[in-house]
Amino acid sequence: MSKVVMYGSVSVDGFIADEKDDPGPIFEWLVSGDVPLDESGEVKVSPASYDYTRQYWDQIGVTIAGRHVFDLTDGWDGQPPSGIDHVVVVTHRPPPEGWDAAAPFHFVDGVEAAVAAAQELAGDRIVEVAAGDVGGQALAAGLVDEVRMDLVPVVLGSGKRYFGSVRAQHLLEDPDVVIQGDRVLHLRFRVRR
Q1: Which of 49, 59, 84, 98 is buried deepest, with most CB atoms within 10 A?
Q2: What is the C-alpha separation between 171 and 178, in angstroms, rounded?
Q3: Quick one: DSSP state of residue 191?
Q4: Maximum Cα–Cα distance for the chain, whole Å?
Q5: Confidence label for 153 from pLDDT (cuts 50, 70 and 90)
């Protein structure tokens, strides 16, 4: 079964965006370097961030996101981001009217169903769960194996929380990866079972 990883960039006070869904300086690290991270050439990071992030991105088979993120990105125009094979969207609503049913997007009701569908689609590749409400729900349900975060040196003060509405304690192991890039600290924690 594939590993389930909760992932996102986060401010030092635990937010992934402000109240209006604007990440602001949280993604500054993705344009602060000299090494292109993808074929667009718009995303450029430090060599350390490239080595860590590119290797991770290449292992992802499926990303799970909520309907809110799907709507904010206009469904990535029907193309999964960063070369990912499939996107599983957690939603209680049907796909948007006119949505191309052949696009590699799968709409499911509930985080448990999303993880099950994603693991089947991913095979032995990583299932990535976007940080925020859906990621927090997956963590609370005991479905997350690892938490990865790109910690950026900014304090937002308020906004959308990295772990969504998680209110219970969840223990993580000590970080087994700590990599400093430009304007970012990459961290990886296994979830304690």
Answers
A1: 49
A2: 18
A3: B
A4: 46
A5: very high
Determine the distance from the C-alpha atom of residue 92 to the mean position of all C-alpha atoms in its chain, rounded to a whole number: 20
Q: In this structure, how many other beta carbons lie within 10 angstroms of the beta carbon of residue 47?
A: 12
For residue 83, pLDDT beyond 90 = no
Predicted confidence (pLDDT) at residue 139 exceeds the cutoff of 90:
yes
- Whole-number CA gyration radius for the chain: 16
Going by their DSSP bridges, the two strands 126-130 and 177-181 should be labelled as unpaired
Strand partners, 151: 10, 185
| Residue 184 bridge partners (DSSP) | 181
CA distance 154 to 112: 33
CA 177/CA 161 separation, integer angstroms: 22
List the beta bridge partners of residue 15.
161
Q: Which two tokens stand for residue 86?
A: 């499939």
Q: Minimal CA–CA distance to 149: which of 167, 140, 136, 137?
A: 136
3-state secondary structure of 180: strand
- Output the six-digit token pair for 145: 């194996």
Among candidate residues 122, 142, 147, the one with its CA nearest the CA of residue 7 = 147
Other beta carbons within 10 angstroms of residue 40's beta carbon come to 9
**Partners of 45 in the β-ladder:** 35
